[in-house]
Write a sequence for this structure.
């Protein structure tokens, strides 16, 4: 395997492409073996893989938090609806 | 004794919340599911005049809890093997690390907010495993390659902002 230095940006893109591929098809054995061989190319590859993985985890947390924020805003509305419904029911009885 | 919904609501909603908490839901989600339990019964005609309303409420709450957990599992499947996660996650983060994690999360939320609409849609749907790249591409009327690039650009932006913040 060639050991010519690769610039950081290219390395990051390669790592991210692997992450995206793995996310797309988590149980694909080929994707996993691609990742393993890519990581073992050099210490720089391994380090970049770790950085890409960390970003992937962070992105996951951020996307989930964002969804929760959005659905919380919606649930405030649905909670008001529930209270109105309960009040209407109470009046009926 | 008749158990009307509003009485049951006042009487059992706290109990249902702790029941749902014990089933592993966080506080916010347990509160939502407890509310949903009553909404579900309301939708079914609002009849709580059964022999054991408490058991009935728990049964409805349990069903909602199972549905929600399943949906969450589908939405956010674990991508990496257990070893990878162990490599990444510090088992006992120091207080400074926790603070910096929060800062990173805040920064990442900011990056998401500033993304162009289509990039964010693609990024979120992909990250949560809700849709395949082909499906996302079709929905956004883009090529699969272009969609892939948008997602990667999202990560590039995230990386760039984190590096900026470190300096």
């Amino acid at each position: 395997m060639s050991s010519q230095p690769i610039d950081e940006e290219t390395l990051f893109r390669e790592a991210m492409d692997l992450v995206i591929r793995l996310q797309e098809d988590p149980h694909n054995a080929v994707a996993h073996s691609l990742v393993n061989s890519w990581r073992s190319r050099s210490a720089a590859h391994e380090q970049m893989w770790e950085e890409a993985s960390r970003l992937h985890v962070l992105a996951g947390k951020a996307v989930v938090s964002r969804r929760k924020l959005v659905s919380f805003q919606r649930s405030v509305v649905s909670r008001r609806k529930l209270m109105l419904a309960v009040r209407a029911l109470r009046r009926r009885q | 004794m008749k158990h009307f919904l509003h009485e049951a609501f006042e009487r059992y909603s706290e109990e249902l919340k702790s029941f749902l908490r014990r089933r592993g839901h966080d506080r916010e989600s347990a509160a939502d599911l407890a509310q949903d339990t009553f909404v579900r019964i309301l939708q079914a005609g609002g009849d709580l005049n059964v022999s054991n309303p408490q058991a009935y409420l728990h049964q409805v709450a349990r069903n909602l809890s199972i549905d929600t957990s399943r949906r969450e599992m589908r939405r956010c499947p674990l991508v990496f093997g257990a070893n990878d996660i162990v490599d990444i996650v510090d088992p006992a983060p120091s207080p400074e690390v926790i603070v910096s994690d929060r800062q990173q999360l805040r920064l990442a939320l900011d990056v998401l907010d500033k993304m162009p609409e289509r990039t964010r849609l693609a990024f979120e749907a992909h990250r949560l495993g809700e849709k395949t790249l082909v499906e996302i591409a079709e929905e956004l009327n883009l090529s699969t390659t272009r969609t892939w690039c948008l997602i990667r650009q999202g990560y590039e932006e995230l990386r760039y902002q984190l590096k900026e913040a470190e300096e």
About this structure: Helices of chain B lie at 5-22, 27-43, 53-75, 82-88, 95-114, 117-127, 133-140, 144-166.
